[in-house]
Amino acid sequence: MRKLVLLALVGLGAQLVDGSLGMAYGVTSATLLLAIGTNPAAASATVHLAEIGTTLASGASHWRFGNVDWGVVVRIGIPGAVGAFAGATFLSSLDTSVAAPVMSLLLLALGTYVLVRFTVRGLRRDRLGAPLRSRFLAPLGLVAGFVDSTGGGGWGPVGTPALLASGRLEPRTVVGSIDTSEFLVSVAASVGFLLALGSKGIDVTWVLALLAGGLVAAPVAAWLVRKVPPRVLGSAVGGVIVLTNSRTLLKSDWVGASEGTRWLVYAGLYLAWAGAVAWSVRAHRAEVAGLDRELAALEDAQDAGASRG
Questions:
Q1: Which of 19, 100, 114, 237 has the most Cβ atoms closer than 10 angstroms to its Cβ?
Q2: pTM (2 decimals)?
Q3: CA 81 – CA 71 distance, rounded (Å)
């Protein structure tokens, strides 16, 4: 019972992050399942089965708040479903002893990308409103879907930064469209895993626990996407993913690091993570202060023009 409550809380927290940042539900949940010894393919299958419900609820909530571009959903979601099915089939064919470190390595790479992307870079706003072409969205969806299945998560970490970097959609529209299209990816991945694995290693109660937490968080996250600074949240979540999967890799047969070496690495990662979060908070405050100064200058110019008139 305690484990189910923990899984529900993880599902709730992961969905709050995913719904407000456009990523990290699958990566966060899969990381926890791997940490407690779940078969990598079964962990990814469990997460994707839960995501069928959470992404449906999240998509509906984002649609209600006007955060969805349906053209983007279709053009990225369908190729994403194809990639997800292929990734599920590939992961299911790997031996467990090989799949666990492979999956952790992929999650570590995704976590590092999220951490660096949101700590170092801001959001482009000079291309807002420009159309997104299918020749960009289709390959992006195919790759993101494949990574999502093989890594237990990755649709958001691959898709969201790419769309944000394009600068052609508002951040809230990027998050809403990625979360909504993920429903197609989750269905395709789940079908792929069930065909390859059957129900072997999949605990339905774990799926329901993750789903319950996610369903509670989905409408709250759709509202929070307008309130929470993505830069700070991205740095925080990326650090958690990097730390957790570094621990798995350092203990694996691939690395086999001694206890002393592991703790030195952990200490360095904790310091880097704390520095990244502090930098993101400072950068966000500077951005807000800069916008306030620009607004004040504009108001002063308007007042001066009115007084001269």
A1: 19
A2: 0.62
A3: 16
